[in-house]
Specification:
The protein is of the alpha+beta class. Helix content is 56%, strand content 9%. It contains 31 helices and 16 strands. The protein has a 5-stranded antiparallel beta sheet, with no helix packed on it. A 4-stranded antiparallel beta sheet has the order 10-11-12-13, covered by helices on one side. A 3-stranded antiparallel beta sheet has the order 15-14-16. Strand 8 and strand 9 form a beta hairpin. The chain is elongated.
């Protein structure tokens, strides 16, 4: 009963008071400290049962001397994370109310605010969507309408009386005079911390509901808090960063809601009506002093102060509203992160604790800054912070489940390292707000990230960061000469062994292109599959997931390279074909993939950071394997078609064909049409397409000739070839437009090209032909499909010109070294 819990609270307070008195009398704190910490935690827990969290300042109003609950809420007081009650009809008193969580506050129509809400525990009844938008007059503070205001006022008055008695009890027996500055300097630091936690309980549980005059609990608590802040500010102003300064700041943070031994609270500043502007301003000024920062970047006392500043910022940041202050705070966090995480760069308990405090503060600052209208996350400090965290992730944080927390639902909770959840929260924020902050620092760790795909508790985050890197613009490695991995150099020599000189040279160029876009650790891994990837039943799950993720990352990098320059697609595809990796990975994926269920599409988002299907931050093998099949067909259609014809098991051919027809082909066509609509390099060419008819039509006018091409894409493309029709072209000889049709078909059916790539190449060929350049007699194209080079080998007999790659492929297929046209022994030369 409430009376029993209230009696327990009184008993705990008196017990704690007696322990404190013993400590003062005997001057011994070590042996009693654990009793005090457990006692204050129990006290806070009991107070939580009795009173809950106090939130009067935002959803409760005063009515004279009595308090009356306000049913309506003020729109300006609603913040993200609030728990309120939603009513569909705001005018009805009998309407059932739904408990909801405020997901987002929308300020784009300021001062008219509206809100995104989500029902606690699932979707709002009657709706399929889990979220909806609403306005303030449909949100209520209470579950039930206030029917009898007199009874309500009496009930509230009785509750407030109990709260007042409880907070007076805490202040009198545990706090008063013991957090005064002279006492603070003369007593053990751990004891001061416990007293500060008592204030947190009094504020967050009881709300200081009594009168606020001289001698009241509110007055005494406010005086303690302001005295602590003044002491900190005066010490910083004097340049005296002593242990006493650190303890005072730590007590200030704990009392205002951090809660070392009690539950944290975000409402203490509002309840006490206290603004930490002075201390925040002094801290910002202190960390702007480069000389001071350099002199105080190491040392036990200095690091303890930096650590405490982080804790204070994590609490006080909820009171800040100016974008300029947030920008300065991010610079402070970056400076502290450089000091703490680099000095404690190890695997000790203190190092892990520093990392967690740092991430907690960064996350808290991100959440509040995101709501500030004049703040943007595009700044150097946040990039440096993410770079530091990525360094810790790749080389410091342990993959240790013994010191983990449980993540997931209660039936299938999984032990995860304690750093995982805060790091994921920061990643999610940057993925939604500004990926550049992730890309900036993580590029340097791409090789380590690839290796972490095989580490159970790190592969989720490693894959998310690699995905951002793959989407970044530009090569992973740049420069005139890229140093290839040793393994790749050895394999390249064996690949070149039976090739003609020109072919070997082309292969070297392909490998160089691949090495400039792909992480070298990734290259070494997929090259090794042909030698050691045996498909035994006892393959470790971590190995399976690692290889599947690595392959998806490889395809993402290939896509990014092709967007930069369509020639990169051909080079990297040729390299992948040489490794034989595609056959191996598809064989592995098809062991686990679910490709015969055409209704379930959850696997498409199984690697997304924001996917709610798996709250344990890990991957499910069947879904990731299905995605591998999908992405491989989408990105490497020509190689997949060859695999399907030559290597796919007969028992799976029909299933793969249906999967391509019903799942891959429709999505691929939609993506192609979207790319065409957003393309900027098509110039005067008009392109239109339809997902229903599966036809893409391009029209281009050149020298008063209307050139038209229609690409018919079969339902099971790429397993079946596209058809190209140029019959509507006017003013052009049939032989010529048939050559153009062959160019497009070759690009789509044999070179892994996209529809947009094929149309752009066709347009460039047309332009060159109208300039008088003769096409290559082998491929009927002016520009080489793969390299976009002009015909550069000329026959000395007939003077026709050929692409190098086309001519040598002709020699291989014909079995003789003769000119394609004049049939004379080849004696041509490069031009």
């Amino acid at each position: 009963s409430p009376e029993f819990i209230e009696a327990c609270c009184r008993e705990v307070v008196h017990h704690l008071s007696s322990i404190v008195q013993v400590i003062y009398d005997e001057n011994k704190s070590e042996e009693h400290f654990s009793h005090l910490t457990r006692g204050i935690s129990v006290l806070d827990f009991l107070a939580g049962i009795l009173f809950g969290k106090f939130e009067r300042t935002r959803h409760e109003v005063d009515s004279g001397e009595e308090k009356a609950l306000a049913d309506d809420v003020n729109a300006s007081n609603i913040v993200e994370g609030d728990i309120l009650w939603y009513v569909k009809d705001a005018t009805s008193k009998d309407e059932k109310r739904m408990k909801v969580n405020v997901v987002k506050v929308h300020r784009d129509d300021f001062p008219n605010l509206y809100f995104t809400i989500r029902e606690e525990g699932g979707a709002i009844a009657g709706d399929t969507a889990s979220e909806r938008q609403t306005v303030a007059n449909r949100l209520k503070a209470q579950q039930f309408p206030v029917q009898n205001e007199t009874k309500t006022a009496v009930r509230v008055k009785e509750t407030d009386r109990k709260r007042q008695n409880f907070e007076e009890l805490i202040l009198k027996h545990l706090v008063k005079s013991r957090l005064a500055i002279p006492s603070l300097q003369g007593q053990p630091h751990s004891l001061s911390q416990i007293f500060a936690d008592c204030i947190n309980t009094a504020i967050s549980r009881c709300g200081l509901t009594g009168k606020a005059g001289l001698g009241s609990v509110h007055y005494d608590v406010f005086h303690i808090i302001t005295s602590l802040e003044k002491f900190v500010c005066d010490s910083i102003a004097r340049g005296d960063i002593s242990d006493g300064t650190t303890v005072a700041l730590s007590c200030l943070a704990s009392a205002m809601g951090y809660g070392f031994f009690t539950e944290s609270s975000t409402m203490n500043f509002d309840i006490l009506r206290f603004k930490p502007d002075s201390s925040i301003s002094m801290i910002l000024s202190l960390y702007e002093d480069v000389k001071w920062l350099h002199e105080n970047s190491s040392g036990k006392k200095e690091l303890s102060f930096h650590r405490t500043v982080l804790i204070w910022i994590s609490v006080a940041v909820t009171t800040i509203q100016e974008g300029d202050i947030f920008r300065k705070l991010m610079n402070v966090l970056n400076s502290i992160g450089s000091c703490l995480l680099n000095v404690s760069c190890g695997k000790s308990e203190q190092s892990l604790q520093d990392t967690l405090i740092f991430m907690e503060t960064v996350g808290a600052t991100q959440r509040v800054a995101h709501q500030c209208i004049d703040y943007t996350s595009d700044n150097g400090a946040e990039k440096d912070i993410m770079s530091t965290l990525t360094m810790c992730f790749t080389s410091i944080w342990q993959n240790n489940e013994d010191t983990g927390v449980f993540i997931g639902n209660t039936d299938a909770a999984i032990a995860k390292p304690v750093w995982l959840h805060p790091f994921v929260s920061i990643l999610k924020h940057y993925l939604q707000e500004n990926e550049e902050n992730i890309l900036f620092g993580s590029k340097f760790f791409s090789e380590d990230l690839v290796a972490l795909l095989f580490t159970k508790n790190k592969r989720w985050c490693a894959f998310q960061i690699l995905s951002v890197i793959s989407r970044g613009k530009g090569r992973l490695y740049s420069g005139d000469t890229i140093v290839l991995p040793k393994e790749t150099i050895l394999r390249l020599e064996s690949w070149k062994e039976y090739l003609e000189e020109e072919e070997a040279e082309e292969l070297c160029e392909d490998v160089q292109v691949a090495a400039s876009w792909l992480p070298h650790h990734l290259m070494a891994e997929i090259e090794s599959w042909e030698e050691d990837m045996e498909l035994h039943e006892d393959v470790l799950e971590s190995t399976v997931i690692g290889r599947l993720l690595l392959w998806i990352a490889c395809l993402d990098f290939l896509d990014s390279a092709a967007v930069s320059d369509m020639r990169n697609r051909g080079s990297i595809s040729s390299y992948i074909e040489r490794t034989g990796a595609l056959q191996k990975i598809l064989s592995l994926a098809l062991r686990y993939a679910v490709i015969n269920n055409h209704k379930d599409e959850n696997w498409k988002s199984c690697t997304s950071m924001c996917n709610d299907d798996n709250d344990g931050y890990d991957f499910k093998v069947p879904k990731i394997a299905t995605l591998v099949v999908f992405r491989t067909v989408e990105v490497l259609p020509t190689l997949v078609k060859k695999w399907w014809s030559d290597d796919c098991p007969r028992s799976l051919q029909s299933q793969v064909s249906e999967f391509v027809q019903y799942r891959v082909a429709p999505d691929t066509l939609k993506r192609e049409l979207a790319r065409i609509n957003s393309a900027s390099g098509i110039g005067d060419m008009e392109v239109s397409g339809s997902c229903v008819s599966r036809e893409v039509t391009a029209t281009y006018v050149q020298d008063e000739c209307k050139l038209s091409v229609m690409i018919k894409i079969p339902p099971s493309f790429p397993l079946r070839n596209v058809e190209v029709d140029c019959q509507k072209t006017l003013g052009i000889a049939e032989k010529r437009w048939r050559h153009w049709a062959l160019q497009i078909m070759r690009m789509l059916n044999s070179q892994d090209g996209s529809v947009l790539d094929a149309l752009l190449l066709w347009k460039q060929n047309v332009d060159k032909e109208f300039e008088g350049v003769e096409p290559c007699p082998v491929c009927y194209s002016v520009l080489c499909v793969k390299t976009h080079a002009m015909p550069n080998l000329e026959c000395k007999t007939c003077h026709n010109r050929f692409h190098t790659s086309c001519l040598y492929k002709w020699f291989q297929s014909s079995g003789k070294s003769q000119c394609v046209l004049c049939q004379q022994p080849w004696s041509g030369a490069k031009i």
